[in-house]
Structures are given as C-alpha cells and as structure tokens.
Amino acid sequence: MLTKFSIGIILMCTATVLASCTGVGRHSEQGFTYKDLQIDTTSARTGQGSTIQFKGNPLPLSGRSIQVGETLRSVKLAQGDLSLIDVTETDGSVRLINVVPSLDTTVCEQQTHYLSEKNQGLDQQVTLITISVDTPFAQDRFAKEAEINNVKFLSDFRGGDFGKTHGLLLEGPHVLARAILVVDGQNVVQYLQVTPDLGHMPDMEKAFQVARSLVNKKG
User: Rounded to two decimals, what is the model's pTM?
Assistant: First the structure.
C-alpha cells in the first residue's frame, strides 16, 4: 500500500519527467528552431460569453471584456522575486504585452521567442512583456534556458487576476487565452488580438507594426 509520502514522491518524479520532455527553452547550436505554426489573423472577443476553440472544443472565457480604445486595468502581477507590480505602471513608454497560457507548451514558447527575437529593434524603443499563469520561478527558468533577456516576465499565478480583469481567463483549465496587446504610454489599448484557436499563433508582425507606428508618432 502506498503511503502519502510515496505518492508525493511519485507525483514529483512524474512532474519532473513531463517537464524534461517538453524541451522548452532549449536551443540548438544555431539558436531556437521555429516551427511552421498556424497564425490567426482574426480576433476573438474577450470576456464573459465568449469562447476560444481548443482541439475543436469551445472553452468559455470569464471576466470583464476589454476592447481597443479602453484603458488597461490596474492589477498586480508577480515578478521574479515574488514582489508585485501594477501592470499599469509605466514610464510613458509603449508596451507590447504578450499573453500566453503556459510557457511549457510549443506555441507559447515560439510566441515568446518571436517577441524577443523577431521584433527588429523594437525592444530598444518599447517595453516587451510576457504574462502567463506560470509561477515566477518557472518564468525565470524559462527565460534563462531560452536566453531571453529583453522581455519582462510577469506572473498571473496568484489568482488569474489579470485574466479576470481583462476577460482573458479560461476558467476551466485556469490558463490565460492567447493574446497580444499594444498599449501606449497613457495605458490606452491601441491593439488587441485574441487568437480564436488556443493552438494558433497570433499575428505578431501586425502587433509590431502598430507598436512601431506609435513610437514613430511619439517621436
């Protein structure tokens, strides 16, 4: 008969094996290997009453809807040292906010690499942020293994407050919908795409284009 201690050890070992199988954050000698993933060019609605497709099944979103032209809402997220920061805190810079369900998946990994590596110098002009429900420790591990140092990682693990506040929380699996936002220096959402299918990439190039136009306009 298994004791509670034995069950705990088995679960820990299983989790370790699963984590090692993902290969997340690992590079080849030539760098990150991008896959030919499907890109969504349309956007789903946010908030209660909306759904996201996942493997052919609809997953309901929860929380209050947000749209382009509205102000980013105040919510505190955890940083790598577990300290909290308000997502609306800004030094007046344009922010490109990359929202992913979990960094331990192929699409989320590629989306975050794309943000970091394909922005063509935008990282020198705007703040790049990735938000997920992964713990700050998992985000820190991912960033180090992936050698990503130009993206700020913020964790919504404490209760999915960012997701709930912006209508991006998939309550059943308790993960965030896949989305990309461009927010100006006054915290106004200037671009928002939520992928209708959780397994598809957002149109990162379109988000880069909007962010670049805001920088040029500001300049």
Answer: 0.86
Q: Give yes or no for residue 19 having a pLDDT over 50.
A: no
CB 139 within 8 A of CB 153: yes
d(CA 99, CA 146): 17
How is residue 8 written in tokens? 């705990």
Which residue out of 97, 108, 154, 207 is catalytically annotated? 108
Whether 108 is catalytic: yes
Domains assigned to the chain: 43-218 (3.40.30.10)
> Tell me, what's the pLDDT at 111?
98
What pLDDT, in 10s, does the model give residues 177-191? 999 999 999 999 999
Which stretches does DSSP call E strand in the chain? Answer: 51-54, 57-62, 76-78, 84-86, 95-99, 127-132, 152-155, 169-170, 175-176, 179-183, 189-194
